[in-house]
Design brief:
The protein has 179 residues and is mainly beta. 14% of the residues lie in helices and 43% in strands. The structure holds copper (II) ion.
Length: 179
């Protein structure tokens, strides 16, 4: 193999690594971000949300204190409150979200989430958004989060462990139910 073909192969490998980055868990120090996806409701949505799991392999608790992204004017951590008469509200988690030592924190539909406010346009299926998560101890972790408008609340991700076998049914039923 000539040097030239070797360097081309190396370049191709680098490109592959970049394009697959969205499906691999983001690792930084002792934290793992996994099962991340983002959503918004319709092309003209002004808000969107992202969900993921943070696992802490270290012996020290950490705290997600800030979220940044270029896709929105503002990104915040929100918790969900059940108000009276079945009304659901949201609260800005100004104190951040604790990720216990040796444990995890889960952001999911109907629960704690990252809220994007002031979107230029609604998220499109397959779009990948770049988000920076800022942790008290681990510092900044950049994650690429794929938009998944087809996923239902509580459902496992397509790339999680192969347990989700009803992908076709999912696609047809959710076409008229973007939210
Ligand atoms: Cu919210």
């Amino acid at each position: 193999m000539s040097f030239r073909s070797f360097s081309l192969a190396a370049a191709a490998a680098t490109t592959l690594a970049v394009s697959f980055a969205t499906t691999l868990p983001a690792l930084a120090a002792d934290l793992t971000i996994s099962d991340a996806y983002a959503r918004s409701a319709g092309a003209f949505a002004k808000t969107g949300a992202a969900y993921f799991q943070v696992s802490n392999q270290s012996g020290t608790a950490d705290r997600l204190i800030e979220v940044r992204s270029d896709v929105a004017k503002l990104a915040q951590l929100h918790s969900v409150l059940n108000l009276e008469n079945g009304v659901v509200g949201m609260r800005h988690l100004k104190e951040g979200l604790v990720v216990p030592a040796g444990g995890s924190a889960v952001l999911k539909r109907g629960g704690t989430h990252v809220m994007f406010m002031g979107l230029a346009s609604g998220f499109e299926q397959g779009q990948v958004i770049s988000v920076t998560l800022v942790f008290e101890n681990a510092g900044e972790i950049d994650v690429d989060i794929a938009v998944d408008l087809l996923r239902k609340p509580g459902e496992a991700g397509m790339n999680m462990d192969g347990m989700n076998m009803n992908g076709m049914e999912m696609g047809t039923t959710s076409a008229s139910d973007p939210g």
